Amino acid sequence: MTVPEVEVRDVPDDAYLLDVREEYEWVAGHAPEAVHIPMTQIQARVDEVPSGRPVYVVCRVGGRSMQVAAWLNRLGREAVNVGGGMQAWELDKRPMVSETGRPPMVA
Fold it and tell me: Which H/E stretch holds residue 43?
């Protein structure tokens, strides 16, 4: 199965952005409107992911998000991988926030 992929600059501002990184990565820096469900929890929490709209899946560089997007698509969801992940997001100077009280960064 081929998984659709977009560059970070092509992720719509109102997208449902699913961040599948681990907790420490999320805490260090993430997109302000992203929803956090770590890859290790996605099967148990899949009902939290909307089924009536595209889901843009992001991780650090794109590998984990590609796997999650492929799995969601096999379930009949419309999932798109965000190419380059949060590293590309940061390089493109897209908005980021952290949970640490310090400037956001990609861990």
Answer: helix 42-45
Interstrand relation of 79-83 and 5-7 (parallel, antiparallel or unpaired): parallel
Catalytic one of 20, 37, 55, 59:
59
Tens digit of each residue's pLDDT (9 = 90 or more) over 20-69: 999 999 999 999 999 999 999 999 999 999 999 999 999 999 999 999 99
Cα–Cα distance measured from residue 17 to residue 34, given in angstroms and rounded to the nearest whole number? 5
DSSP 3-state of 12: coil
Q: Structure pTM? A: 0.96
DSSP assigned state of 4: P
Mark whether 59 is an active-site residue.
yes
Q: Scanning the structure block, which residue is given the tokens 């419309």?
A: 78
Tokens of 49: 């992911």
Instruction: Point out which residues pair with 19 in neighbouring strands.
Output: 36, 58
- Which two three-digit tokens encode residue 73? 């698509």
Tokens of 90: 């940061």
